[in-house]
């Protein structure tokens, strides 16, 4: 038994993990990493079994945002070479969402850049949601449109939106170092508006923004206190052309520890490995699924993820099933199409070795 097993026992028995516990998790040594994952996995299994919730992002409106979030490729003045376009039409949004549903997603996240929607924008999204739900009545829809004003959360709820995402992104004590065009309180206000309107609150963070361990824990505890039902954990993708260009603070092991800390602090909440999964977890993505219980399928808002099929393979290979498709048993799918590719380089050839 390690101290992380003791902590898992205590949390399973109903104790709330404190900031000190979370700090201890973040500071686990490399030798302790596997026992830590195993302990966090007990909480994950207790609340989510062997399922992975698969989400799919549709970027309804990309780039050209007037806000100045330092981490964001869509921010004011961003020189990142990303796609920029204004609102998708309803049929385009439905087409994109349908591709994600076909790929195995059960939740569609409809996202737009910007400080927050106008009432007209809200009506536009309400129309999209209506059209999507008419074709796919079981789909869960999460909207992510920025800061909400009076009545907007209620309108989205009435239109059939199930959840609203608005990340706090970082600790209150670090917020003003990463954005100046709105406040931490603005962000919390929108999460509360969503909650009060009956939308499931989705709020998470971005790790690797220069925050301290204490600030990471501060953010996790804040998310628990905020009552966030699902917690996307993003790992900073430092786009060239943004203020955080070249910021590279994360290792795969650090990312695992962050996910484990999130699991201990919020044991029964949906912990989603979000942006930066492939870039930062790299070969530890599989281990991370034993701690988190949700991922995005395919691409992110302005960057490409790994192939969607590789995401599904990751789930199957680690013994999990896609939530909503539990009847599809783990299989040796793909085995029939994997004739090994023959070596044509290195010894016996004139070509350089693969080394
Ligand atoms: S408000 Fe949203 S889209 Fe705009 S810069 Fe901030 S994170 Fe990016």
TrEMBL record:
Cofactor note: Binds 1 [4Fe-4S] cluster. The cluster is coordinated with 3 cysteines and an exchangeable S-adenosyl-L-methionine. Binds 1 [2Fe-2S] cluster. The cluster is coordinated with 3 cysteines and 1 arginine.
NCBIfam families: bioB (TIGR00433)
Name by which UniProt lists this protein: Biotin synthase
Encoding gene, per UniProt annotation: bioB
Binding residues annotated for [2Fe-2S] cluster, in chain numbering: 109, 142, 202, 272
GO molecular function: 2 iron, 2 sulfur cluster binding; 4 iron, 4 sulfur cluster binding; biotin synthase activity; iron ion binding
Described function: Catalyzes the conversion of dethiobiotin (DTB) to biotin by the insertion of a sulfur atom into dethiobiotin via a radical-based mechanism.
Domain of life of the native organism: Bacteria
Positions bound to [4Fe-4S] cluster: 65, 69, 72
Record flagged with keyword Disulfide bond: no
């Amino acid at each position: 038994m390690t101290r992380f097993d003791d902590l898992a026992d205590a949390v399973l028995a109903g104790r709330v993990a404190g900031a000190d516990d979370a700090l201890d998790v973040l500071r686990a040594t490399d030798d302790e990493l596997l026992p830590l994952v195993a302990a966090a996995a007990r909480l994950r299994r207790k609340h989510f079994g062997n399922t992975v919730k698969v989400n799919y992002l549709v970027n309804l409106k990309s780039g050209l945002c007037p806000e100045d979030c330092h981490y964001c490729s869509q921010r004011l003045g961003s020189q990142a070479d990303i796609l920029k376009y204004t609102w998708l039409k309803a049929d385009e949004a439905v087409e994109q969402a349908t591709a994600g549903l076909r790929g195995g997603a059960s939740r569609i996240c409809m996202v737009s850049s910007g400080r927050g929607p106008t009432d007209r924008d809200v009506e536009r999204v309400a129309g999209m949601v209506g059209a999507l739900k008419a074709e796919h009545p079981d789909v869960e829809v999460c909207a992510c449109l920025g800061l909400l004003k009076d009545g907007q959360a209620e309108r989205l709820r009435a239109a059939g939106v199930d959840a609203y995402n608005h990340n706090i992104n970082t600790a209150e004590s670090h917020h003003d170092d990463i954005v100046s065009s709105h406040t931490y309180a603005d962000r919390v206000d929108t999460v509360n508006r969503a909650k009060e309107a009956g939308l499931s609150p989705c709020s998470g963070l971005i790790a690797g923004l220069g925050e301290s361990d204490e600030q990471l824990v501060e953010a996790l505890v804040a998310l628990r206190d905020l009552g966030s039902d699902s917690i996307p954990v993003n790992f900073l993708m430092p786009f060239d052309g943004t203020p955080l260009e070249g910021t590279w603070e994360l290792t795969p092991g650090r990312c695992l520890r962050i996910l484990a800390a999130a699991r201990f602090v919020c044991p029964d909440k949906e912990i989603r490995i979000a942006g930066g999964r492939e870039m930062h977890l790299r070969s530890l993505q599989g281990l991370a699924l034993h701690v988190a219980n949700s991922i995005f399928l395919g691409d992110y808002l302005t960057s490409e993820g790994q192939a969607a099929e590789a995401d599904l393979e990751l789930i199957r290979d680690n013994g999990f099933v896609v939530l909503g498709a539990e009847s599809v048993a783990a299989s040796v799918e793909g085995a029939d199409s994997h004739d090994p590719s023959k070596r044509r380089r290195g010894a016996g050839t004139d070509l350089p070795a693969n080394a």
